[in-house]
Design a protein that fits this description.
Length: about 450
Amino acid sequence: MNSSITLPIKIIGAGLAGSECAWQLAKRGISVELYEMRPKKLTPAHKTGNFAELVCSNSLKSVDPLHPAGILKKEMELLDSLIIKTAKQFALPAGKALAVDREKFSKKITETLNQHSNIKVINEEVKEIPSGTTVIATGPLTSDALTQEIIKITGEKFLYFYDAISPIVYADSINYEKMFFGSRYEDSDDYLNSPLTEQEYYKFWHELVNAEVTNLKDFEKLIFFEACLPIEEMARRGKNTLLYGPLKPIGLKSPFPKKMYAVVQLRRETLDNDSFSMVGFQTRLKWGEQKRVFRLIPGLEEAEFVRFGQMHRNTYINAPKELDIFYRLKKEPNIFLAGQITGVEGYLESAATGLVVALYIYQFLNGEPNPLPFTTALGALGRHLTLSNPKNFQPSGITLGMFLPPSKKMKRKEKAKFVAIRAKKEIEEWIEKVVAKY
Ligand SMILES: Cc1cc2nc3c(=O)[nH]c(=O)nc-3n(C[C@H](O)[C@H](O)[C@H](O)COP(=O)(O)OP(=O)(O)OC[C@H]3O[C@@H](n4cnc5c(N)ncnc54)[C@H](O)[C@@H]3O)c2cc1C
């Protein structure tokens, strides 16, 4: 046994990454102490004390086997990911996305981890990093005291960007006569669609760009995450920008005679179908303004909101500078980091890094670890985190560009297929060689 790893493994944060990490270790017989500050102390975005709470959208991205997120999911499934199997158990119809009933999903994960004999749950905020092997999985909203502790070790300030949450509306406040069910490019009724005429669209656009937004508490520069721009921010980039983004009027057949110039999509939130989230409508408009502007959308004139959109500061470390390939702090190798705090972006990717960290700890306990090949999706995330240029490091969800490129130039579709086939082969070999051995 490698003496530098000490038991129990202390995991701070029972979010997407911490929950997966705890499960992967516990199921291999490793004792874990799992610290979670909620519900005693909530973050600005979490609402419950449940583990692996999904703070915004309820989607864990694509299941398409040729999509990078689909490849990542397949690899996680092969490794018995708790997040993926629970998500599948509580999946909602959402076309090619894996969307879940967020409450049932998080409750189940909480129960599973609470009941596991190798996991001791400690319901406290961690203000000082404990001694012994520790995994920091406290996410983009890490509490202030712990943030200061991490800064003390790395000597570096955290990087940050702003991320926004989309509103959710009650199903019984929607006027279904003005909307239709259907999925883009697919024959399914997974989404509820509101078609807008040209006149309706430009009125909506005008009100959106002129609506009042919330002020920033501090004087920080406003840095948005490009893949999750607030809708009003996107709208400000041009009168027609939304028509090429979340409101694009393509891939859907409207049953109404009026010409569909734009379309707003809503996705089911719960298995009981009692609420819908507004797809791509993350926003920092003031709450009263959200009510006023979003009620201009046909069918939402009387919408009641389960939750309004909000904006939060996301913090992350400069991973290429601070982390080694095994997700350990270079300056303190007994401390591992997992989840969004490393600079991956998304529920899925956060859970994936929790899984990887558990496997590396397990390998350290049994000898020298074998890093995941950069040809796999799980390895590609590590490649992004540790080999990017630290001068312009940006958080990112999984992309095709993160994988080790094929040796010859290929068109996008051909490359996606090549990468998917290669990843499957290589992850299976790695599991056989590394994981199955123990
Ligand atoms: C506002 C916002 C919206 C987002 N929207 C999406 C989205 O729509 N889709 C998507 O894929 N991703 C989204 N993300 C990004 C990201 O995927 C999620 O934040 C994800 O939950 C990150 O997983 P994690 O495990 O790293 O952190 P989290 O899931 O946040 O888990 C961290 C846990 O640590 C706990 N914690 C923090 N500090 C301490 C402490 N000192 N002691 C003990 N416990 C502590 C927290 O309570 C929390 O439970 C969003 C992020 C934010 C902030």
